[in-house]
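pasting for the record
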Amino acid sequence: ERVARGTRRARSRGGEPRSRLARCMRVNSREIREMSAASSSGLAQGSASSTPATRKVRIGGSKTQGAGAGPDESFPGNKIKTTKYTRLNFVPVNLWEQLHKFGNVYFLCISVLMWLGEHTTLFIGTIKSFSTIATLIPMMAISAAVALLDDKRRGEADKAANSQTAIRVSRTGEEETTKWEDIAVGDVLHVKDDQEFPADLVPLFCSGAEGTCYVSTANLDGETNLKLKSAMSTTQHVCAERLAAAKAAKNNQLPEKKSSIRSLPGKIDVCEMTLKNSLPELLRKIEMLEVEAPQASIHDFSGRAVFASGTDNEPLGAKQLLLRGTVLRNTGCCLGVVVYTGPQTRMVMNTRETPCKQSNLERVTNAVMLVVLASIGLLALLSDAVFNLNKGSFQGLWYLTPPDLILPDWFSYWLTFCVLYSNMMPISLYPTMEWCNAWQAYFIKNDLKMYWKELDFPAGVSSSNLCQELGQVGYIFSDKTGTLTQNVMELKRLWIRGQPYGKLVANEKGFNGGGELKNASNNGRKDEIDNFLEVLAVAHTAVITQKDGAVHFEAESPDESALVEAVAELGWRFTDRVGEQVKVTDPAKKEVSYQIRAVNAFDSARKRMSVVVQRDQEYFLFAKGADNVMMDRSSKESKKTEKELESALGTFAGEGLRTLVVSRRALTKGECEAWLKKYHEAQQAMTDRDGELAKVAEELEVDMEIVGVTAIEDKLQAHVPETIERLREAGINLWVLTGDKLETARNIGFSARVLTSSMTIATFDKELAGTSQAMSSLVSDEASKLSGLDTENKAVMVTGAALELIFGDVALKGRFLDLAKACSVVIACRVSPLQKAQMVRLVREGVKPTPVTLSVGDGANDVPMIQEAQVGVGIAGREGRQAVNNSDFAIGQFSYLQRLLLVHGRWNYRRVCKFTLFTFWRNAVQVLLIFFYTFVSGYSGTSIFEDWIRLSFNFLCSFPIMATGCFDQDVTDRVAIENPKLYGSGRLGNDLNTGKIVQALFSAVGHAMIIWTVAWMAYPSMELLGVSDYYSWGTAVYTVLVFDMNYRVAFLNYTHNRYTIGTIVASFLCYMLYLVVYPCTRLFADIFAPNMYMVPYQLVVSTPFWLCVVAVPAVMINVDMFLLLLSRQFDQRRRVLADLRKDVMQKAGRSVARKRGGSNYDHFLVPPEAGEEEEEQEVSATPPAGVDVSAFAQQKHRGLYFDGSHRLVRLASFLAGLLLFVLGLLAHSSSTSMGQLRIHYQGDGYDTDPLGTTEEEVVHAQSTCHGVGKTCTFKAKVAQTMRPPILVYYGVGPYYQNYNYYMKSEVSKELLGKPVPAGLREKMCLSYTRVDAQGKEIVPCGMKAFSMFNDTFTIKGVEIDKHGVAWESDVQRYNNPAGYPNKPQTSWLHDRYPGVVTQEDGVKSEQFVAWMRPAALPHLVKRYGWINQELKDGTELEITIQNVYPVDGFEGYKHLVLTELGSFGGRHHGFGYALLVCGALCMVLGAAVAVMAYCQDGASRRSFVDSDPASRPLIPDGGTSSSVSPSD
């Protein structure tokens, strides 16, 4: 995407778009990397033995691969393959890649455990594996699909690149069109202007002057300057002669023996003429090309052309290598021989995998996952321990038959509980986090305030997983040139022989000393001035290009082009470069020719460049370079003026100017020729050619006469000082790493406000301490001087030479780091790219806890530090796009960094912290409810939630918090920028750490306990209303949980806009739709969970259910808001942040309200920034291409702003408390008015009587009815008049119908009357529940049907109507099987329970249907019938009970109850008390908040509150570790 964007911008500016090959090579395949590594180490492709140092290429023209190979050599083809998948390896390779994620491994292991629990007897598996696999597989499938799509795109790019056509030339000069993939080593190719080189070529002929050509290397190194290349001189000379002869023959002229084709007339196809006239001779003349083995360096190349004559072999260098991916520019054509193909080309060997950067938040999240994993193990261990202590109390129950497990109980049940609690690890974390990261990246890329109009460059994001990392940066490592400065070079001042020229005037362009130079020339200083300007006009590698009729100087650096342009304005105009000849027009308008005999190139080690030139019969060495290296090589005469020179250098550096020292030396012809001989020998060296050339140059570059100094200004970018000041105020340490000299860096530091006048600066230079021991002493001395100062007033400056000493001593490096950490600024000057990366690594490895580091730069030399830092930011500078291409984020100007960090970084960090904490908190609440349920479900591993309902949890509760992760803003962007100290919470990692996780877990415990308590207290009322079965009560608790989750999301949000509110509403709607489609649709219910059929319908008509839904969020919002205010009360930093946000937002809101004529309540709206409306209108008139200028993309979301205040909390507490009080009173009143009669006829069941039960309402008949099979009759008096309909129900306990194996012990198809395979009955039903002692088949089978309650009750003179005790929907579902009741050898229900089930009803008996709905809690209550007549107070009832059902074996109890029934249920004060307590709790919290508000109204607090929030200290003394809750 970044490359495509760069292509669009480049085309719009008329620049060079990236090639398809460059795009396809952005991502490496393992195969390519392995080939490259093999090639880099010198291994010839296909050879496993020796490692040749060179390769021999014979010029061929054959179509077969390896045509140019020498004996025993073979070369790879030119086909590029960057894909990593095939049809056969896609699944295993992608699966292996995805299993590197901790979460995927965890859930895969859990899925395997679940499957083992389902299908083996290793342990009890209660969670079906599909519930995890059904989520894991789509997640991994989506990731796999994305990877496959990316790989397909790479394959398409490969195909497009390999299918491009090139012109191949045969030995006879005939041309043919061939595909790139068919090109072989040794082929001769014809490349035309603006065409891309399909392989690495050595040019035989170029149509440019003297065999030169220009190439664009933007695809390789991102540099925009054209590079000058040249053909072999021998072959070029032959071609030029033949071409001149052909031209002469065409024009009937004599041949001109010259190697230039500049005078060719018309539009002659010079390459075509060359092919016809010269190529056969060339192929006969050249025996072979002997070149180095493939290697990755794009700047180095060595080889030689071996001629058939055996003499005059020509050396080949970097200028004779045309690289694949580069483009021929400003040159008609080029003929070249292929020397490297495919994976051995420089381009492919330089495609390296971008370092995989894991965000700090991801590391914290992984650590949190380990904590969660430990919590799962701990909860499982606690459950396991309690189980083993109590297993004897329920494992002997006759109706429960736990399986025989292979593993010991202690271990098998621990595994059971681990699987049961496994969802505490949120499976949805990874995909939802990627979603949030993608949107955060989208907002960054489309931020108009980070769009640089000058270069049409919007912000870019290539590592979306690091968006939140921008909010945690502790150290910034910045380049200077092009990063802090504009990299627009202008010559400002000169120093020539002791005389300065020009003055630095603010905002004035160009050099203003031309008049001074003219006057000095007229006053006897002409020679020294001309000598100085002559060097600058000749000693360079610039070329002249024309664009739109204007002349441009193309050079390899902005400095060089600035100097050439400046001296041209001063009279010494560079006019042409023809091969080795440079033409210059002097001030007298006379053209002077210079023959360039040798060029000693600039590099970072030499820090200088020089040329050996011949002017007529005179020989000179012209040189320019850094002051330190040039002064060391100056003549004795020049050393006499060394002090003046140093003074001038100091003055220029003090003005922030970049300086170069210019020297020259006259040479004798003999001296020059002798040196050139050594130079040519070094050029032909096959190994370490650059080193040999440097040695030779060193011999000549001595005793040079210093003729002057240039001073170039590189202006600061706009708003750099303000940006640095804000970043420092945010607590971010700034380290500037530059190649400039010490004084220049110091003065730029002051002008950019990196340094301030109040700072004490410790300076480390090799000149001050030349040995490690001396440097160690210097570090100690400087540390002592700085020890008593504040961090803000301390700075360090260090040179690259000093760093070499420091990094060479481990102990010294540590002490230096300790000193640097204590300073707010470090400036390293004269450092190499490697040293920049070393400085970043020094902080990453040495500072604990490891801070988030950010490197920002604009050039290729900044790439090492950009890749070394955790966050790399590339600036679209004038040195190409190499930094941008290798960065995680790209911006147009350094000043945009403050918005990138202080706004987007801070927003994203806080959003993701909220998102991550909520995700873990959410799953913890769910798992804690399952944990609580374990203790009332016989430790059998039963989840409180039905599987398919539980499966929807991660989905339903994910996208509301995803909106928070994308859109929430605690303050506006302007407030964030104007108050940089707000950034401190992310820098210190205060929003997601161990403390926050502990807080989240405690909060989860609180929420789970409130939900559990309210649902527990509502259970007796739900029992009487017929919705207390496992499926109904579990769904009710789940619904309350969903409401609580969505409330919590709303509570966490500061800004409530259409997206945050919409996702919460969508969550509810999706849940409602899910309940309608799944449980309320017969088709889906029968397929997935028949017992869930119509559960939602039964719940929505139940009043206690709705009271739970209302009560839990009402209580929790008051508890959460109280805790929020309490944390602010005792934490000054949180209080100040809250006050600052509130004051600024309210002021902005009131301002907008006044402007728009709004009400006083408009301050609750999130206002737009001042002037944003006008700015939006202006931008929308001419929107930038590729940038979304909509209000959505600019994050200008209108909505409600919430920040908890005392008044709001008091109001919410009062209203919630009042509501709950009213509901509690209604519930209590209803309970009091309900009459009941409770009869205990077996066992001790007093503890099961509901609250509010009086002694007059309880009859004890245990002595009368004791004994199984006994029929007892007794009388009971009605204590309170009961009006019809009166519910008659029985209770049994403790009875674990919710035991896992008990609930599963049924065959749903059999109950529905459908045919059932024998294998299914065997799987689901124990043998003695399938076949009785007489060998009859039991229908329906299973422990639930086998253990049906069969006591009967009659009341003399009172009819009990047994209809309407079961759900009508269940009765309709149940059907007797085919052949009922005449199937022989079958034991039917009416056979086993003749007094309860009639033959006519069979499985449709309402008593049976009601029994088959398992109770959610061990206290089992089932409806028996209805009494439709009034029972008045004092009425004596004669009751007969046939006691058949056995409970003595487990010391159980049974009772019979007659009760009135209202909308709140029957007699049960407990639920009313629970609501009243909840209301009282809200009132108490409101009162506590009022007390806190009263205390804050004191004089001391009032003075603090009334002050300007922006002026308050955000971090109190000693409070740097204070934290800010994601919800404050």
